[in-house]
Write a structure and sequence with these properties.
Strand content: over 45%
Structural class: mainly beta
Family: Belongs to the UPF0312 family.
Distance between the termini: 7 Å
CATH architecture: Beta Barrel
Organism: Staphylococcus argensis
Shape: elongated
Protein name: Lipid/polyisoprenoid-binding YceI-like domain-containing protein
CATH topology: Lipocalin
Number of domains: 1
Domain Lipid/polyisoprenoid-binding YceI-like: 3-168
Radius of gyration: 17 Å
Low-confidence stretches: none
Pfam families: YceI (PF04264)
Helix content: under 10%
Mean pLDDT: 94
CATH superfamily: Lipid/polyisoprenoid-binding, YceI-like
Largest sheet: 8 strands, antiparallel, barrel
CATH class: Mainly Beta
Order of helices and strands: EEEEEHEEEEE
Number of strands: 10
Length: 171
């Protein structure tokens, strides 16, 4: 079984949501961790967890970030973390339990194993993964919205995201 040491300096979590039904607003989380193990020759053996610190949200508009941390959205004081626990990996998909704002739901996302490369800075074998998909924010109790006078809603229902992570491979 291969152990993977997470490399936060070369990893990121980014998201976007439809705003005013005409554009996408983007942001990121700056503090997250990942623990996985498994066999790179058989990705179906991968197990692990990703944990995001909600207070690390960065949109980069401070007033917007503060509103997102409030009970209208993430309620970060009461629910400081979002987690994803891997349950199954198969055919370019990863399925697991997402826990956000006290709600847990099984979700399936696209998984791309980007391969392995030797890092010239420390001679470590490094593996890369990208997970992307969408979360229905209503399912997790993040329902703040406003009707627009032109029709439609202030915010989209689905939040698109991409998690790109590098891991030092420990055989």
């Amino acid at each position: 079984m291969t152990q993977f040491k997470f490399d936060p300096a070369h990893s990121n979590v980014e998201f976007s949501i439809k705003h005013l039904a005409i554009a996408n607003v983007k942001g990121r989380f700056n503090d997250f961790d990942a623990n996985i193990e498994g066999d790179l020759n058989d990705l179906s053996t991968l197990k692990g967890q990703f944990t995001i610190q909600i207070k690390s949200i960065d949109t980069p508009i401070k007033d917007r970030d503060n509103h997102l941390l409030s009970s209208d959205f993430f309620d970060a004081e009461q629910y400081p973390e979002m987690t994803f626990e891997i349950k199954e990996v198969s055919e370019g998909k990863v399925t697991g339990d997402v826990t956000l704002k006290g709600e847990t739901h099984e979700e399936t996302f696209d998984l791309h194993y980007e391969g392995i490369s030797k890092n010239p800075m420390n001679d470590a074998q490094t593996a890369g993964f990208v997970i992307n998909g969408a979360l229905d924010r209503d399912k997790y109790g993040i329902t703040f919205n406003q009707q627009l006078e032109t029709g439609g809603l202030l915010l989209g229902k689905n939040v698109q995201f991409e998690l790109s992570a590098e891991f030092e491979v420990k055989e």
